[in-house]
Backbone:
């Protein structure tokens, strides 16, 4: 560990000098691209491209971890398959990158590969989703949202505005930190007795639509849908309209994310409440990786700040980053 840490500290000093030199160049005659060995090599395993949230998060990561910002980024999309993420993580170990970052598609099944990352003495930064592992001190830091609070916030709106609702809960990817914690938070507020049924839409619009088509047959008394993300809520709108009912009126819809299409649905009266889960935190990830590489102390977790929307104007919607 000491060998690598010494190498890293030395490289960090060199990187800092190189970046200072680069910025000096850029202030005058245009910046020269840093040569590969002056950049922080980062292996990033993104879980997929399943939703508008994930797309916005990927765009933010790639806009922040650029060569001109001092990074050599290898970015791999796992198409929502854990085995693809494990393969990518092992490839990053083989490449001996300086830092590994990943957003785990589900919470469990990572012990072996996290041990391999620790044995390779490569610092691990957890992004967005959480892990449930027996490995001691598995990662340097985690940056993401408070999923349980998001579920509580959604539940509090329902309790206040639709206390007698017959709720169908549209769950995200089963076993993902976002699904587990949002469900725990929401159910703890509204009470299980008010939830007529649950099914997963795997955080995608198509699977959300299919789950709601089945739910409207199985639970015709449903008059409120809590969707763990906007994309599944947008699929629910399609299913509700296909059933000849009015989304937002006959069947209320409460969602989490706050992506553009979700807030457009709120503006159109088809969603009733949207809890934001901000995906635009690539700059915070970049800052954390630089500190990890330099051997600086970091908090074990950094919570990305959220808000919630009962309404929005077209002007406010058009002004948003995502
Ligand atoms: C939340 C993120 C979730 C989003 C979904 O931080 O992990 O995954 O809510 C996405 O849209 O699929």
Residues:
């Amino acid at each position: 560990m000491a060998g690598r840490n010494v190498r890293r500290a030395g490289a960090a000093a060199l990187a800092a000098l190189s970046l200072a030199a680069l910025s000096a160049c850029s202030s005058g005659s245009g910046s020269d691209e840093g040569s590969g060995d002056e950049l922080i090599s980062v292996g990033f395993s993104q879980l997929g491209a399943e939703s508008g949230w994930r797309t916005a998060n990927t765009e933010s990561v790639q806009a922040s971890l650029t060569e001109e910002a001092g990074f050599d980024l290898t970015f791999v999309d796992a198409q929502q398959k854990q085995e693809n993420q494990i393969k990518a993580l092992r490839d990053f170990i083989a490449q001996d990158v300086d830092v590994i970052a990943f957003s785990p598609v589900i919470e469990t099944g990572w012990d072996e590969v996290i041990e391999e990352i620790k044995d390779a003495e490569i610092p691990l930064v957890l992004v967005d989703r959480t892990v449930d592992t027996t490995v001691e001190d598995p990662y340097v830091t985690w940056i993401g949202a408070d999923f349980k609070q998001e579920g509580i916030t959604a539940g509090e709106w329902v309790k206040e505005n639709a206390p007698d609702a017959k709720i169908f809960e549209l769950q995200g990817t089963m076993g993902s930190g976002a699904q587990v914690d949002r469900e725990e938070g929401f159910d703890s507020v509204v009470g299980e007795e008010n939830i007529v049924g649950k099914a997963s839409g795997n955080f995608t619009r198509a699977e959300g639509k299919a789950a709601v088509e089945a739910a409207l047959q199985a639970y015709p008394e449903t008059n409120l849908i809590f969707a763990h993300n906007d994309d599944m809520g947008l699929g629910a709108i399609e299913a509700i309209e296909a059933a000849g009912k009015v989304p937002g009126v006959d069947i209320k819809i409460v969602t989490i994310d706050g992506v553009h299409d979700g807030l457009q649905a709120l503006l159109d009266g088809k969603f009733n409440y949207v809890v934001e889960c901000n995906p635009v935190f690539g700059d915070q990830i970049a800052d954390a990786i630089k500190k990890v590489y330099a051997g600086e102390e970091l908090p074990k977790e950094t919570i990305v700040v959220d808000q919630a929307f009962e309404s929005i104007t077209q002007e406010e919607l058009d002004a948003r980053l995502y």
About this structure: The two ends are 41 Å apart (CA to CA). Residues 40 and 308 are 36 Å apart (CA to CA). The first helix runs from residue 2 to 27. The chain is about 45% helix and 15% strand.
